[in-house]
Specification:
By secondary structure, this protein is of the alpha/beta class. It has 15 helices and 10 strands.
């Protein structure tokens, strides 16, 4: 459930500003005075000039509407980008070309809408069929933080996997990037539909670029995207857009909201800054889908009740949101709601239940769970709980501890290992 920050235009792929932060480092953003790096709100659903249009004449889910080139990097430039983001570069073999895809999908109510995502192709021989990695990003508050818009840390993992030789589909999710509406944060169901439809759009985009996808699918994702990865993997039982699932490797995901992540917000395992940030975002976003509170003052103390919903409207940066929030969860919530969150009932219990249980099934493809014992955003107990749920179905999914590193470092350490594993599984 990491937080991400950025401000880089499509036309400047070499000017990497990796200012994404997580955990205790969220507070450091404010102290460092990074307000100057904030991105201006984007017009919802707007597209850049120079877009190559491919408007579909039907409303099928996953229909490709536009392909917009956003980056073209050499192998050396990819390596430099990853190195600056503290990612290992040992798997970098190719340069990459990246595109923003605009495609049809459905909203949280199943109604037609559009979404965007980042599609990355390696500069391999054009006659080589490519496996596809679906790479799900972590928590972000501003729509322009999305991988298809900003070239910062949201592209680190997609570029790494593409530079290792696979195509990559990195959905922005609903309400982020250039898609309309407000992001339904931590709503796994809509993240899955947007991700699955991104796979369909990617197949079409590959064909338009003269490339062929092999049909082999590999799933990864970080933080919020780790939860999305496990939820998406479960859809493999239904065919997953016609792809064959080969391997699943989420990183530091909040797989057990009720049993681990929510309690960790109160027992000290999640640092205060992150606890306030995540809980605020979750309650505001989920209240649009479930009846958690009637008025913000029912849940949030003054003066936060008057500003909290505006802060999470998709047009505010993390640097704007953090200083407007209190230092602790106890300062954020009313006394009654503070107790209720620890013993969820009603709409809150419903919201948690709707986004739990994605490890409680039997995947056919191998699963590896990457996490870090030093993580104070998404404690490693989430991964251990997921592994236990999978084990109950006879599936051994090892928890691979990346060490005493913070949340953001866990993905930097894990991603190259995942790329190597995907290469072995696919060989």
């Amino acid at each position: 459930m990491n937080a991400e920050c950025t401000n880089t235009a499509d036309s400047t792929p070499r000017r990497v500003r990796s200012v994404r932060r997580g955990g205790a480092a969220l507070a450091a953003l404010t102290l460092a005075g990074l307000a100057g790096l904030t991105a201006a709100p984007a017009a919802q659903g707007a597209e850049d000039a120079g877009t190559r249009s491919a408007v579909a004449h039907h409303s099928d889910r996953g229909a490709l509407l536009r392909v917009t080139p956003v980056a073209d990097l050499s192998r050396a430039e990819v390596a430099a980008f990853l190195k600056k983001g503290k990612f290992g570069t040992e798997t970098v073999r190719y340069g990459v070309r990246a595109y923003r895809l605009t495609y049809r999908t459905v909203d949280t109510q199943g109604r037609p809408t559009t979404a965007t995502g980042l599609f990355v192709l390696p500069k391999t021989p054009r006659d080589r069929a490519l496996g596809l990695v679906s790479d799900a990003h972590g928590t972000m508050v501003h729509r322009d933080y999305a991988p298809s818009v900003a070239e910062d840390s949201g592209r680190l993992s997609p570029y790494l996997h593409a530079a290792a030789g696979k195509a990559v589909a990195a959905p922005d999710y609903l309400g982020l990037g250039k898609g309309p509406g407000v992001h339904p944060y931590m709503d796994a169901r809509s993240a899955v539909t947007a991700s699955e439809d991104m796979l369909r759009a990617s197949r079409t985009a590959a064909r338009r670029e003269g490339r062929t996808l092999s049909g082999d699918l590999y799933l990864t994702g970080f933080s919020q995207g780790g939860q999305v990865t496990m939820a998406l993997a479960r859809e493999a039982d239904r065919g997953l857009a016609g792809f064959t699932l080969r391997a699943v490797a989420p990183v530091s995901g909040p797989y057990d909201l009720s049993g681990e992540e929510m309690p960790a917000l109160f027992d000290g395992r999640v640092n205060d800054t992150s606890a306030v940030f995540y809980l605020s975002y979750f309650l505001v976003a989920q209240n649009r889908l479930h009846p958690i509170y009637k008025d913000p003052s029912d849940a949030f103390r003054a003066p936060y009740a008057d500003r909290i919903e505006r802060l999470f409207d998709g047009g505010h940066t993390e640097e704007q949101v953090l200083p407007a929030l209190p230092k602790t969860v106890k300062e954020l919530l009313t006394p009654a709601f503070y107790e209720r969150v620890q013993r969820p009932t009603g709409g809150l219990k419903e919201a948690l239940a709707a986004n739990d249980g994605f490890c409680d099934w039997k995947p056919a493809a191998p699963v590896r769970l990457y996490a870090a014992r030093g993580d104070t955003d998404v404690p490693i107990q989430n991964a251990r709980s997921c592994a236990a749920a999978l084990a109950a179905h006879g599936v051994r999914a090892p928890v691979l501890d990346q060490g005493a590193v913070p949340h953001m470092r866990s993905v930097g350490k894990a991603a190259p290992k995942i790329a190597r594993w995907f290469a072995r599984v696919g060989s």
